[in-house]
């Protein structure tokens, strides 16, 4: 190898195409396809009395109108419950088009297909649906009191109730010198990728085959779901995820109603049909996340060491549970962060509400869990008058205690067992980066100028790279071009580049010769999907293993042709050569020709290879029994458990003494995702995650009124941070490789956003001197908290002054 | 039901990326849809269709405009530049090149809107400070990058422009 690829900040291979308008996103495909649009419920909870389409039939360009009654067989049955769980005793899923009843605003009721989207929307506007409104259940408190029900056959609106514990919490709390109670809440937010969802389907009547394009995070999942629903052989359905404009979780749910309806309509009509979600549809009918109320009871000793932790929380799962209870399970396990909790018990209730369903959003339950745990850490520090970083470090799981088994089951049904990490080292780096020990002096200086500043901290551990498996396939063409495919998809994470780096390094070829395809079921039909920070861990390792297989084959063939021992060969820059005698060599392209005993010289490489054609052994077949033609290889990676990445963030905020405006002055991140394939891409993931975290901490919330109308269903009203709101992010890295996989990789996709809400709350609390227990927080809310604090309705931090410098204490 | 069921088509003549084009579109057709679906210049993206995200930004006579807030017919006689007009893979514009150097994009969906916005901005302010660079892009939403590398890209693009003007780079 001339340059080292693995671990280098290589520029992305996908970028030249994307910056010149060459991206192919869902709505860029299918020119001339018919367009679908949907009549969606304007009510949060209602019975459908009548649907009258007569006024719509005269619109020129109308092709078809479908209601639930028109849906045949399995298309008309409820959508699948993808991830059942024994605790999910009352799972409910929607129909692709509502049958008799709607349970949230935005639920699809009628599908229209027309010549273009404008006309399809004209038709939608002329369709009259009569509803009989029912009492809506909005918000966790209303769901919890159970007076009104979302589904009449689900008592108390409880979809699932789960308890996990390790040790005797009652006893631990009873014996603890100190016990604190905290009530902590987080509001709903949403992924909001810049590209919404979309589906394009083509039915080929001659071959009886269906081709689907979807802006999905899992093309294999969509393919399987459509095949099952439309009763087609899997072999007759293919699904391709083209360029996808961001996902962050919302595009993993499968199938979305439209992913069934559009292919079904394409097959029924024998024409291409496309649906491109608009922004309002995305707000009201694509998934949200985050809404949870938490009650924490913690017992600790005089040094701030945890003895017992008892957490109860209520999770708002929206109107349906097609994706199971992954989010609350993650909260209940991952809130433990880098700490030893003593005895631990967590109990949650997952509740139905008449609002759009909930599936994982980047971080997936962890931002809430981290908020609960980190607020608790701050509370302990405050109560005892100790330094907040010190209390954390006293509770850390130490490197020599790894692997650490929490005695709980993680989201994948496997043990919650940390594989590696060095939390004290991470904390030391963070303290140095933010200048933890100098902050008191900085605060004093600011105070002297009449400014209010605060320092916040947050630590997390993130289970990444969950199984079950991913695959990699490598094929080397006679030109030397290396085709790599893996089944999981890409939504901007730079997989074309990271995976190419792995192959370039493992195989010894220039990265320019490596071409990666993701998310195309024609190229790799076995795959799971891109979520849970699993792509680099799962596909990265699968691709490395596949590359090693191909390399072994290439060396075997070259060794034969060059008449040398395999051990004496190496591959440098795409050429197989004898170590120490680079004169004896052949290109990988030539090896590829030799791997396939054809008699035709298609190209120069094939002609060149003739010089290596030895004498044929006529007693053997051209392809040996234990061999295959072609320079190809495939492998899968399937781990026994998730790998656990970690990180710590700190921020300095300033709150305006008059307006209560909140400004982030500094934001520091220390991040450990094991071995990094491309540090530039990892940093980019961290930046993006922090920006989403800042949104979650200060701006983003889903404002439902009590009738279940989403009042801020536009970018005008749902505030996402612009460049003006996201601080400059200072980063430092630690690399503690995972012992679980050959490359030592841990996932990095979600980390950035996990602790931000906790960190900003911590910093605001530190600036203001009273507890912050509910996020996101707006200036108005902070202003009101100040007023309540001034009226004595909100306590001051107990020992707020204790860890300030003596001058400040006056 | 007073709207017409068949739409009247209007003639439009405009220049797109330096090429004179003639086309027809109904009065209500958005410029974004016209560019994307009628002219098949799909590089311009639609993120919100209500003028907030900036993904659909194109240059109209050199000035950045949100093509989701314009009707195609109002582009009559104007010169439009889309991302396809800023450069090619072989000959990238300075802003395009800067984005590839600075990891200024992830999914790339918001990117065309940033590229057009920044291209126009650097015409006006060829030597922005970091603070000015941040301000210049603060009308465009990106959900992936956290903006830091986009700010970097603005500064790098300004540098590339200077290098190219001085002939120190192709
Ligand atoms: S699509 Fe035009 S501003 Fe968002
Ligand atoms: S790069 Fe994905 S939205 Fe900006």
What can you see in these coordinates?
The complex is a heterodimer of chains A (810) and B (170). Chain A has 810 residues and is an alpha+beta fold. Chain A has a seven-stranded mixed β-sheet with strand order 3-5-1-12-9-10-11, sandwiched between helices. In chain A, β13 (292-300) and β14 (306-318) form a beta hairpin. In chain A, α17 packs across α18 (756-768). The longest helix of chain A has 28 residues, at 535-562. Chain A is globular and about 95 Å long. Chain A starts with 14 loop residues before the first helix and ends in a 20-residue tail after the last helix. The mean pLDDT of chain B is 94. Chain B has five helices and five strands. The longest helix of chain B is centred in the C-terminal third of the chain and has 19 residues, at 148-166. Chain B has helices at 31-38, 94-102, 111-124, 130-136, 148-166, and strands at residues 9-16, 19-26, 57-60, 63-66, 79-81. Chain B has a five-stranded mixed β-sheet, with helices on both faces. Helices cover 34% and strands 16% of the residues of chain B. The termini of chain B are far apart. Chains A and B meet through α1, α2 and α17 of A and α1, α2, α3 and α5 of B. The structure holds FE2/S2 (inorganic) cluster (FES) (2 copies). One FE2/S2 (inorganic) cluster (FES) binds next to loops of chain B.
